Amino acid sequence: MDRRAHVTVIGKDKSGLIAKVCQFLFECGGNIEELDQHVTQGLFTMHLEVSWPATGHTSEAMESGLRAIGDEMSMDVQFRLDEGGRAGPARIGLLVT
């Protein structure tokens, strides 16, 4: 089973940040499940949902590598391991006739 995590990156907009993060994830055998990024008045924000093989890098190594990229680019990087396989409240549908 794959490991999953949520990554948030915030800071002053800089060229090449998305490429650095994606390259790091590729080198770790990771997969980007979802990516959402915006620049508002020079402030860059990005949220990623990523997965990688359970037999691959540890979550600590993934977090450390992503934080190193954040430090290099002067960005705040938050890494949150998804322990339950999905984040947020469960979505349900209730059908009534």
Description:
The protein has 97 residues and is an alpha+beta fold. It is 26% helix and 37% strand. It has two helices and four strands, in the order βαββαβ. It has helices at 17-27, 59-72, and strands at 3-12, 31-40, 43-52, 76-81. It has a four-stranded antiparallel β-sheet with strand order 2-3-1-4, with helices on one face. Helix 1 (17-27) packs antiparallel against helix 2. The protein is globular, with a radius of gyration of 15 Å. It starts with a strand and ends in a 16-residue tail after the last strand. 19% of the residues are buried. The model has no long low-confidence stretch (mean pLDDT 89).
Structure characteristics:
globular, alpha+beta, 2 helices, 97 residues, 4-stranded antiparallel beta sheet, single chain
How would you name the oligomeric state of the polypeptide chains in this document? single chain
Helicity range of the residues?
25-40%
Shape assignment: globular
> Main beta sheet, described?
4 strands, antiparallel
Which structural category do the helix and sheet elements fall into? alpha+beta
Q: What portion of residues belong to β-strands?
A: 35-45%
Give, in order, the helices and strands: EHEEHE
Strand order of the largest sheet: 2-3-1-4
Radius of gyration: 15 Å
Note the total helix count.
2
Q: Determine the N-to-C terminus distance.
A: 39 Å
**Taking all residues together, what is the mean pLDDT?**
89
Count of beta strands: 4
Low-confidence stretches: none
